Structure formats: structure tokens, C-alpha cells
Amino acid sequence: MSLVPVTAARAMAAADSASAALRRRDLCSRGIRLAGKMRSDVVDLLDTYVERQGLDASASVAVVEGVPAAAVERWDEQTGTQRLLENLAAYRAFRALLAQMLEEQREQLGEADAALGRALAAVLLQVSAFAYHLEELLRLESRGPPSEEGAGPPPAPHLGLFERKLRGLGVLRELAQWAVRSARDLRQLAKPSPGSSSAPSPAESP
Questions:
Q1: Beta strands per DSSP E along the chain
Q2: In a 3-state reduction of DSSP, which class is residue 145?
Q3: Taking Cα atoms as reference points, which of 22, 2, 23, 4 lies closest to residue 12?
Q4: Distance, C-alpha 144 to centroid of its chain
Q5: Measuring CA to CA, which residue among 28, 157, 176 is closest to residue 94?
Q6: Is residue 47 a contact partner of residue 151, using CB atoms and an 8 Å limit?
Q7: CA within 20 to 30 Å of 76's CA: 8, 54, 56, 128, which one?
């Protein structure tokens, strides 16, 4: 039996593996840039939100139900797939929560504060784009993204105006923390797997 077909098959498999690794690092690098831009915009939005809503920037807020906490124990023991799944669950939740905030803001202020509405809408678009980016990475991991059916945050609670403002503040604070964690997760994911001789692409700082 000739070894040529076997050798050719191995060469093709190695080429496919190298191509997938390059694609993965490229997606991670772009994701790090997206997370950095998102965090910068969320920090700016936080300042605007606090000012326009008449809140104290140091106000204490309760944990927002439906949003996974960015802080995690034993972070270094997580697999790449675990990181991606947790990130995707968080950004899907943020997408729904920001949409609720945008609707509430329009009902509360109408067109009286269009600047805040535009800033919320812009961050919502970034969150949606980042969730799609994470789905692409999961597909590259040979695992499609999980279904969104029944995975959304709980219905918005019936809160008073001030409580809604504080809830929005909590959402934006946690989103800023997630942007930091996402960049860290993607840097970890971009590292070459054991046995790989290829160097990782530079990771931009958020």
C-alpha cells in the first residue's frame, strides 16, 4: 500500500488545522479590539447616564437578575468553550436588557434626551455585534452556538422610576466589567495550543 495518499491526507489535515488556528487568532484579535471599544463607549455612557438620570456615580445598586457576574472563581481552569459560552450568555442577556432600557428611556423622556437614547442604541448595536462574533468563534470550535429559546433574561420587574434608573446603572456597570473580562478571555483563547509552533498575534489592550 502506497504511503503517498496517507502522507497527503496528513498534510491536508495539518494545513486545515493551521488555517483554523490562524482564523481563530484573527477572530480573537478582532474581538479584543471590539471589547476595548465597547468598554470605552460604555464608560462614556455611564457618565452620561448618571448625569442625565440625576444619579450619584457612587450609588450602590443591587445585582441585576438575569446577568451572569463577570467575576468568576478558578478563571484559569476554564476551557475555551466554557469561556465562549459564558460570554455569549452574558451578551445575549445584555442585548435584551439594553433593549428594555432603551424602550423605558424613550417612554420616560421621549425625544427630550435624544443624546442618551442614541448612546444607548449605539452600545446595544455593539453588544449585538459582539454576541455574533462569539457565535462565530463557537462555530470555529466545532460547536454551534446554543439556541436562544428560553435563554433570555426574566421579564422586566415592575419598578418605580428611581428603581429603574438604578437597575440601568447596574446593567451598564456590569457590562463594563464584562468587556474587560471578554478581552482577557479572548487573549487566553488566542494562545497557541500545546505543541503548536505558531506564535499568537498581538493582543490589543482595551
A1: none
A2: coil
A3: 4
A4: 17
A5: 176
A6: no
A7: 128
